[in-house]
């Protein structure tokens, strides 16, 4: 259900933003950030009482000035009164935040879903070296797994790999790693992994503007597979924050969107 919804959102957004994939990844990220900021600013303008927010801002500036004067004269009653009034004004402002937040959820979810599926990695190119990893239960350690040889793939590590143990990166598990490169051929392809009597497929794309999901889950005997595509980094330097599950593209998106919202509001005098 969720997978189908995700596919539908991406297909719909491809119709609107698919042309953006012709440009370098830095341009894509900057454009999406500016588009997000524009959406947030426009939604705020149409769903909030701008006249009220403007008056609240002016009132707060005046109250802060009066509070400073009262502190200078050490007038405790005046200080308490101004602070109470400031709190009431702040509550009026806070009540105006609900509608813009709700109204902006849908467009931001659409943009974020599309970006997650289109902007997180660089699409794989013909001849580009790439690592492919398969995770197995710890009970599979010492056994053999292999990729079915194909004319549209080459390998520098061999098709057959022994499953080794990993115990220092989360739950103990087995892993097999191949180093591959794609030769010219169809854009949509399958990596076929054989383990014991079972066969597992991992779809991937080569030479196009998009990529398939880099990680795939499978089942009990083969937990997951991952084609380790090159992550998109803004200007080639902005890293991700793995500890909070923020990939590099999302860090860049946040860093670009927050100041863009600020400048859009300043430019258009949106409160």
The biggest beta sheet, please? Answer: 6 strands, antiparallel
Global outline: elongated
Q: If you compute it from the alpha carbons, what radius of gyration comes out, rounded to the nearest whole angstrom?
A: 26 Å
Mean model confidence by pLDDT:
91
Helix content: 40-55%
According to DSSP, the number of beta strands is 10
Could you list some keywords that capture this structure?
271 residues, alpha+beta, six-stranded antiparallel beta sheet, 6 helices
Short description:
By secondary structure, the chain is an alpha+beta fold. It has helices at 2-17, 25-47, 50-73, 76-95, 98-118, 248-268; strands spanning 130-136, 144-147, 153-155, 160-162, 164-166, 173-182, 188-195, 198-205, 215-217, 224-228. The longest helix is centred in the first third of the chain and has 24 residues, at 50-73.
Report what the structure shows.
The protein is an alpha+beta fold. It has 2 domains: 2-121 and 249-268, no CATH class; 130-228, no CATH class. 46% of the residues lie in helices and 20% in strands. It has 6 helices and 10 strands. It has helices at residues 2-17, 25-47, 50-73, 76-95, 98-118, 248-268, and strands spanning 130-136, 144-147, 153-155, 160-162, 164-166, 173-182, 188-195, 198-205, 215-217, 224-228. The strands form 2 sheets. Strands 1, 3, 5, 6, 9 and 10 form a 6-stranded antiparallel beta sheet that branches. Strands 4-2-7-8 form a 4-stranded antiparallel beta sheet, with no helix packed on it. Helix 2 packs antiparallel against helix 5, helix 2 (25-47) crosses helix 6 (248-268) and helix 3 (50-73) runs antiparallel to helix 4 (76-95). The longest helix has 24 residues, at 50-73.
